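Kindly inspect this chain:
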Amino acid sequence: MKKINYLLLILISPLLWACEGYLDKPDSDDITVEKAFESVRSARKVLNNLYSEVRGAAYNISTRNIPYAMACDDGIAGYNLWTQKFQSGSWTADDNRGAGDDAETDPPTVSFWNNTYKRIRKANLFMENLYRATGDEADKARMMAEAKFLRAFFYSELIRRFGGVIILDHSVDPNDYSSLTNQPRETFENSVEWVCNELAEAAKGLPAVCSSADVGRATDAACYAAIARLRLTAASPLFNTDSPVLPSYTTTQYYGNYDKNRWKLAADACRFVMEQRSQYYGLDLSNVDTAEPDSWENYYRRFINRYFIVGKESVWIAYEKENWGGVKIPWNNRQSGGWNWVNPSYQLALEFEMYPSGKMPMDEESGYDMQNNADGKDRDPRFKATIQAPNATYDAYGFEPWAGGKASELQSQRTGMCLQKYIDPLYNDVTAETRNVRKNIIHIFRYNEILLNYAEAMNEYTGPTSDVYSAINAIRSRVGMPDLPSNLTQDQMREKIRHERRVELAYEDFRFFDIRRWRIAEDVCNEYIKGYDVTKGKDGGFYTIVNVGDRMVFEKKHYLFPLATAEILMNPALEQNPGWPKLSTATN
């Protein structure tokens, strides 16, 4: 009987969701492909494990603990984390070889390539063996579409980081890579088109919406959300241009020309969700308990499991994996018993407008006072829901980051601000209260992103039409912020959309990729992170804005991730991304 190879052993490991006692014994050679795919029920367990990859650290900020935001201009780490290598420009083509997606100190560059192809192999193995299962053919057809969706999603995340990729639509023998030794990467265009076609094909076999028992499974809306994100990335200035960021770019790294219609393709994918699935998806305007509709309390509850109800805004979600039994220690400030890994930048804090005027804080007429806005009453409600500002108070804790304050700890306290977006303000580990065992809800695709993607794509394609205004104003009005000014030019609207993305999607792993696809990273990541002077007392100079850490370094090569030396040695046909050494430090 054919024995299962080690990749399939990974597939059906004890990490399965709802494993129901399956494979209670350790993995061994007597586990066969035939057994794993004996029935639809057993195959479902294999597919569930493939879904569990989305809950892992590669795509799930909550499981990873370290937001990509701290690797750009939105924050700085409180400890020696991998983000510091990104900010200093010291990351290499061989960081983190063979490590997991949740490594704390080494950048997820090389490991992301390797680990994603492991996930793709899992999907290929599943699709090649599902036909063995006995059971309902309709169930198998849906499962096949789900696996196709997941494989395409994994590929889309590779393209986002590396450009053109090697397309594998079949499993590769892990003991024989000879078929890959001379296989080059596809062009950027071919890579994008293959993934989008796969997603469109998968959508045909998926439902429009999941039942409450199937939360987290793929839908056709999730497929088109993935298409929209990839199309938007591909249409952006980094890739959609006849003037590449480096002269050594080839069609592996970009299109080689500019085509305005690429923006329309992104908008069309958004429109599928917005129009054809409008009965199922939209902005969540619900008011939870007694929170005011426009308040920060009502907004942050979309990220906390204690309140979370799967609603119209959730296009595709992932629950985090178990982590310390509950509360996010690295994200809490010291006053609430945390370590404060995430230190928001003052640059990000200034992006939140004044309430209700909509003026930017640095506007002379805004009335902004950095010492007296911590309660958030005079700021965009998303401010207090996202960032703990100095002297802010929540239900069970406050924030006093100045020297001598209750949350002061210079080892981790860098900017005088702390993350709030995923923190439950009712629970404080310093007190004797029961630990917070609630989990964060991570939206892989949320309807607000669909609106933002649509607005950006349409503004680039047609200019600031009423549809563009409607999409952005819907997001702003949900939190009580005023509509955008009328008669904006295309350039002005572009800046408004980019501003809205930074505020609405803060700490959801967007800014890091946005500034790359927009080709502005070299402008915003070659300066210092700004923050309050945490070495001073509350009334002794704390509110002075200072440079934090070393000056960031961003080179043009950093727009794309490098491939590992080991990968190139194994496959000489692989083309290293421009600016990175073809062969670096690895010898095997």
